[in-house]
Specification:
About 35% of the residues lie in helices and about 25% in strands. It is α/β, with parallel strands linked by helices and about 425 residues long. Bound molecules: flavin-adenine dinucleotide. Flavin-adenine dinucleotide binds next to helix 2, strand 14, strand 18 and helix 9.
Length: about 425
């Protein structure tokens, strides 16, 4: 069974939720948020908590985008070593960015506790396995660098690792203890529930068509209504369109695809990731997996089609056989995909291209924790912090060269990276 791209397996086990109504009139607010994923909903929750009149608009419904389809892995780590982040962002924003990553797992799980968010949260660690000898060196650099900035990251090897994964696919790995997992659609819906309880308004099925200035404020026009507000915040990540000129060109939308197994037998479920760790690896075309809280395993990788096409399925089948050879492709029941946002420096960005217009995006596939952090930071800006005092720098738009041709580029890159992953020297 292939699920339609706006559905994922998570819809089957998520907390129930009444889809918000469409916006059909002209209203005003202090803040309009475009995008009801984790970024937009966390921003709304924080603003509503201090009595700011906030409206969230989504072309579909809360969690429809990546936030409700993701692997739900809480991965508190950037893609590069801390020294590089400092070099990229300098001595003020570099350390702040690192601190944001290091604390991101704790921030998410504390938020869940604070608001009694029902989302099957498990904070038992995130394992990242080395797929080759050269990637062991990468893991060593990352472990040393990030531990130096306070991340609870350590090495696990050999038999101990095999037991924690339920497979001998990797001999060396790091474990970030503050990592873990959530049911991501439940998390998104629950963020929406709490935000509404605090006074936010959310409208679904209301694609934003344009944003234009109206006196000292902004007018957001949707299919059937409009909102006038002092602030407009774009939280559209991999689904960013042309509404805000130039924003789409700052990211490359990459597709990630996933599949879920049939219900596992009790002994299969108990032997795979027995302590509830989440698992990813060092492949350029990553393999990642985790169990749900009931009886299934989810397995993911990068892909080309949000509908998870034939070659995407092949990649998932090959990955499953490599990482969990005790299972077969026939054990996979449904497939889906979604879009994440890749940035040139592999770091998230805040933009403020005009007074009152904000955007926060670019988590490079590790956005469950960082979009939670980003939402808080965006709310701090609106509540009154200056851009220079935020934890993430506010940058000018920087377009990818040849953005128009990104699909060809991504296709070629995935093929090339797959070959490099395959040719990496195996260390055993
Ligand atoms: C398949 C998959 C697996 C992933 N796995 C992981 C993982 O395990 N761990 C991890 O950390 N990260 C993972 N990620 C990345 C993570 O899910 C994202 O970084 C994060 O969810 C982004 O949240 P967001 O709120 O910024 O954007 P999204 O959740 O994508 O929300 C954007 C919203 O904007 C709305 N929108 C866009 N344009 C308009 C418009 N014009 N009008 C109205 N609404 C609009 C869309 O409808 C959408 O709901 C994964 C991503 C995918 C796709």
């Amino acid at each position: 069974m292939s699920l339609h791209s706006n559905q994922s397996f998570w819809t089957k086990t998520a907390v129930s939720y009444q889809v918000p109504e469409q916006l059909t009139e002209s209203i005003s607010a202090d803040v309009t948020i475009i995008g009801a994923g984790i970024t937009g909903l966390r921003t709304a929750l924080e603003l509503a908590s201090v009595n700011i009149n906030v409206v969230v608009i989504d072309s579909h419904e809360p969690g429809w985008g990546a936030s409700g389809r993701t692997g739900g892995q809480v991965n508190p780590l950037a893609h590069t070593v801390p020294e590089k982040v400092i070099k990229q962002l300098g001595d003020t924003f570099g350390p702040r960015m690192l601190e944001s990553y290091v604390n991101s797992g704790y921030e998410l799980f504390n938020l869940i506790k604070k608001h009694n968010i029902q989302c099957d949260a498990v904070q038992n660690g995130w394992i990242r396995g080395a797929h080759s000898q050269s990637s062991v060196k990468d893991l060593e650099e990352m472990q040393k660098g990030w531990a130096g900035y306070g991340l609870d990251i350590s090495f696990i090897e050999g038999k101990k690792l095999h037991n924690l994964i339920g497979s001998t696919a990797y001999d060396v790995a790091t474990n970030v203890a503050s990592g873990g997992c959530i049911q991501p659609l439940s998390y998104s819906r629950e963020l929406a529930r709490v935000a509404v309880a605090k006074g936010a308004q959310i409208f679904g099925n209301s694609a934003v068509k344009s944003v234009s200035s109206k006196g000292k404020e902004w007018q957001v026009i949707t299919e059937k209504g409009s909102i006038t507000s002092q602030w407009v915040v774009f939280c559209t990540n991999g689904y960013t369109d042309d509404t805000l000129k130039g924003l789409k060109q700052t990211i490359i939308p990459l597709v990630s695809v996933q599949a879920v197994t049939r219900p596992l037998t009790k002994s299969e479920y108990a032997s795979i990731l027995p302590n509830g760790h989440t698992l990813a690896d060092t492949r350029r075309v990553i393999y990642y997996s985790r169990k749900d809280n009931h009886d299934r395993l989810l397995f993911g990788s990068l892909g080309m089609s949000e509908h998870c096409n034939g070659s995407d399925k092949k990649r998932l089948h090959a990955g499953l056989k490599t990482v969990f050879p005790q299972l077969t492709p026939d054990d996979l029941e449904s497939y889906w995909g979604g879009r994440l946002a890749f940035t040139e420096d592999l770091l998230p960005h805040i933009h403020e291209p005009a007074p009152g217009i904000l955007a926060g995006l670019g988590y490079n596939g590790r956005g469950v924790a960082m979009s939670t952090v980003m939402g808080r930071i965006l709310s701090e800006r609106i509540i009154g912090k200056k851009p220079e005092d935020l934890a993430i720098p506010t940058t000018k738009f920087k377009s990818f060269s040849f953005h128009r041709f990104h699909k060809i580029g991504v296709y070629s890159a995935i093929k090339a990276y797959e070959m490099r992953d395959a040719f990496d020297i195996r260390f055993r």
